[in-house]
Amino acid sequence: MSSASDARLTAAFVGFAAATRRRAPLYSRISAGIAESPLVAELFREAPQVARVPANLFAAVHDRLLADRSARLADFYPNLVADPDPGDPVPEFLAFCAAHAADIGRSLANRVPQTNEIGRSALLLAGFGRLEPGPKAHLDIGASAGLNLMLDRLAYRDGNGWELGRSEVVLECSVRGGEPDRPGLAAGLPVIGARLGLDANPIDIADAAALRWLEACVWPDQADRFHRLEAAIELRRSAPVEVVQGDAVDDLAAALGRLAGGGVPVVTTSWVLCYLPAERQAAWVAELARLGSAADLDWIWAEAPDQVGILPVPESLAGSVHTVLGVSSWRDGVRTDRALALCHPHGYWLSWV
Ligand SMILES: C[S@@+](CC[C@H](N)C(=O)[O-])C[C@H]1O[C@@H](n2cnc3c(N)ncnc32)[C@H](O)[C@@H]1O
To answer: In this structure, what DSSP letter does residue 185 have?
Structure first.
């Protein structure tokens, strides 16, 4: 790899340190301290361009650390110890990298960060809450490990007295605005008559290494996010949820066909359509419209308009970098679109529009 490539890597770590200073101070400090490290450049030596990002190194190291939580580096991680060491984490981070260089290099060459954000269930719940009552057949596209297919088995709080559900997995989502007679996210949990996930690269719940990678990709400074993901994975082990491999557009009709009889089909996408190039996003909407013209259908979306140009958002939200929650419905072949809320990308707050 050229020195120009190493310089780009250094710049990426410097930029990452600046961008994360407030919300991820541990990674920010480490990133600043290792930006010019020859060891870091060496670890990335076999990594393809798409994998040469700081978050990938942090995930690879976190993954090793989750496999051996007794390592001294764990003392600096707020998600792994109750009282993290406030000292300089950089020497310990580099020592850990040197000790696990082969594993970390292999991870960088073969993986990119992957997520399944359980907090988005709060957003999807808010979407379900705006649909007519009655059983739903839930198809989650880009379902990853299928965590958001358990949204009727979670508990929700808005931090302001509103609560819904009983579960080991409790999602806190503060709710702004809305109507006084409709507090919180939804009046009740949806009745799910059938459920299925579809993903280009599903995560097998029996694959311990893949699940650990999901956890490793959460930043340690977001300890609550890490712990609720752990709890959701635990719940998922006993949940009757299936995620099949397939493409969002090409395999949509067949996946919906498998849910026949479960209720009105509700298709959900959360931070998925941004992975589709523009022409595939257009194909996605065309396929939904084709299916919606033949049978009633709802699509709940939680996506960012700046990355998903086909979202039916009002002009004021077009190009927004924020996550926008909305519902598109087909009834008797007629389509209606509703933008419902601006949201935190991980579901920590929702502001009705
Ligand atoms: C950022 S993750 C979001 C996962 C989940 N929806 C959530 O909110 O946590 C994006 C997911 O979309 C999947 N994906 C990307 N392109 C896809 C496609 N063409 N068809 C189906 N799934 C796709 C990826 O494999 C990944 O699991």
So the answer is: S
Nearest residue to 243 via CA among 263, 264, 268: 268
Cβ–Cβ < 8 Å for 310, 326: no
Q: Is the CB of 89 under 6 A from ligand 1?
A: no
Using a 6 Å cutoff on CB, does residue 276 contact ligand 1? yes
Task: Pick from 112, 151, 199, 284 the residue to mutate for probing ligand 1's pocket: most ligand atoms within 8 Å of its CB.
Answer: 199
Are the beta carbons of 322 and 304 closer than 8 angstroms? Answer: yes
Decide: 271 in ligand 1 pocket, CB within 6 A.
Answer: yes
Eight-state DSSP code of residue 95: H
Question: What is the best residue among 275, 281, 301, 308 to mutate for testing ligand 1's pocket, by most ligand atoms within 8 Å of CB?
Answer: 275
Question: Please, how many CA atoms are within 13 Å of residue 141, restricted to the half-sphere of its CB?
Answer: 31
31 close to ligand 1 (CB < 6 Angstrom): no
Q: Is 127 exposed, middle or buried (0-12, 13-18, 19+ CB in 10 A)?
A: buried
Other Cβ atoms closer than 10 A to 275: 13
How many helices (H) and strands (E) the chain has is answered by 11, 12
Query: What's the 264 CA to ligand 1 centre distance in angstroms?
Result: 23
Residue nearest to atom 10 of ligand 1 (CA): 272
- pTM of the predicted protein model: 0.93
* pLDDT tens across the length of the chain (353 residues): 468 888 999 999 999 999 999 989 999 999 999 999 999 999 999 999 999 999 999 999 999 999 999 999 999 999 999 999 999 999 999 999 999 999 999 999 999 999 999 999 999 999 999 999 999 999 999 999 999 999 999 999 999 999 999 999 999 999 998 887 889 999 999 999 999 999 999 999 999 999 999 999 999 999 999 999 999 999 999 998 999 999 999 999 999 999 999 999 999 999 999 999 999 999 999 999 999 999 999 999 999 999 999 999 999 999 889 999 999 999 999 999 999 999 999 999 999 99
